[in-house]
Amino acid sequence: MIRAIIVDDELLASIGIRSLIDGKEEISVSGVFNTPEEAVAFLRENIVDIVITDIEMSDMSGLDFIQIIREEDLAAGIIILSCHDEFSYAQEAISRGTDSYLLKHNVSSDMLIREIKKVYQKTQYHERLKTREDKKEKPINGTEIYTVCVLRICSSEILQSYDDRSIDTTMLTHLLERIVMHYEMGTLFAPYNQEMFIVFQDDNRKRAEEQQETIYSNVMIISRNISQYIDGQVIFGLSSSFKNLKQMKNKYDEAASAVEMSFYKPEKQIFMYHEPVLKTIFCPFTVNCFLNEDGLEIFEKELNTYLRNAELSHLEIRKMQGQLIREVNKMLDQILKEHLPGEDLIQKWSSNVTLISVITQEKDEKGLKENLIRVMREFREDCLREFQKDSLISVFTYIEDHLEERLSLTELAEIACMSVPTFSKKFKERTNMTLVQYLNERRIERAKKLMQNKNISLEEVAEKSGFSNANYLVRVFKKVTGVTVSNYRK
């Protein structure tokens, strides 16, 4: 893509010139300016290949404008479009550094396009030669410091050019190469099937604050220059600085990890790498009240807390997702085990395919939360519907809510609206256990959770989990788990 600007203080003339070239044969007009001053300001912050300008303007002459462009190296090629056919004008323009001199009244679309291409090819050749010479002449002084910057294009598609042809990845790569080279930022890498990245280079003798300012300035220049060609935002992930290029692979990983943090704040543009504070984050989801009226609201609050802690700890996104999948699966399994619903519901929710896709495929935190809460709402509704149909479900729920109390067969049979013999038979068929065995298993599970807190005495554990005393808890614990309480608490 050849980027051009038009500078002419006659509005109709500039509109006419634009209509001749814009969007034709890989030419894009990046801006139209009525004064050279406006054009200079734009050129100082944007990459432009060709400047098309009049030679006589009210505020500044085209000749002075050309001189500023050449002195500051603001554009590679300059084409004069003038009404004056006197040789002296052309001679002066060429002496100031113009590449072509055309007369407005003779110019046509084909002629101007040909001239733009000719000037572009000539200037690109000279730019490459100049770059090679600069590289040869530039001494290696051992004071370089580097930063890897990974670029992620967060857009649905690259903008269409005016002739409805997409600007492909190759064109975008060339544009970035031009920007990086023009502003002497460092080196662009565009590996196949990977995100593009730049190795910024600076002088290590500068203060750290100055180096940081240079990096942020580079990022802003890149963002401004490519924003007109893409539909969306560019996210930048920056590694920590380094002096030895052998570290580049590790620093690329840092920058790639940094850019992943946009998951939490997609509206932010620049992300610096930070060493993870923790490798895992405590992720407790309350199980025993999930089926209550406020259960989903409690889950949402706990999910928000987990995600905030993961962000503040700079936990890698994949690790955060993996841990979240495990914890939510654990929650679902525990609810299913406690309430023992029918086989259809168990089979539907024992498979974690839906859960994995919801957690791993969302591109940002908002999408993850919305879809995970939607899945958990569906799970909750399925459970409640199942429980309404199943007379034993209310018994299992009652047991969980009253484990620390004395529970009798008669009491539970009444809750199920059954006779004691019928209840005992159905309970055994459903759980493959007697009521006493089932109660002991559930109480031992609760005791395990309580014993994780070293500050709770064994007597308190026994009381809160429904055992008459600590000695009875110790005997039942060994019988059910095959492990002594003392060994378990170590």
Give a written overview of the molecule:
- The longest helix has 29 residues.
- About 4% of the residues have low confidence.
- The protein contains 20 helices and 10 strands.
- The chain folds into 4 domains: 136 residues, Response regulator (Rossmann fold), CATH 3.40.50.2300; 129 residues, 2-Layer Sandwich (Alpha-Beta Plaits); 93 residues, no CATH class; 97 residues, Orthogonal Bundle (Arc Repressor Mutant, subunit A), CATH 1.10.10.60.
- It is elongated, with a radius of gyration of 35 Å.
- The strands form 2 sheets. A 5-stranded parallel sheet has the order 2-1-3-4-5, sandwiched between helices. A 5-stranded mixed sheet has the order 7-8-6-9-10.
- With 490 residues, it is an alpha/beta fold.
Give the secondary structure arrangement, pairings included.
Blueprint: E1 2-7, H1 11-21, E2 27-33, H2 36-43, E3 50-53, H3 62-72, E4 77-82, H4 87-96, E5 100-103, H5 109-137, E6 144-158, H6 169-182, E7 186-189, E8 197-203, H7 208-226, E9 230-238, H8 248-260, E10 270-272, H9 295-312, H10 317-339, H11 343-350, H12 353-361, H13 365-389, H14 393-401, H15 409-415, H16 420-431, H17 435-451, H18 458-465, H19 470-481, H20 485-489
Parallel strand pairs: 1-2, 1-3, 3-4, 4-5, 9-10
Antiparallel strand pairs: 6-8, 6-9, 7-8
Helix pairs in contact: 1-5, 2-3, 6-7, 9-13, 10-12, 12-13, 15-16, 17-18
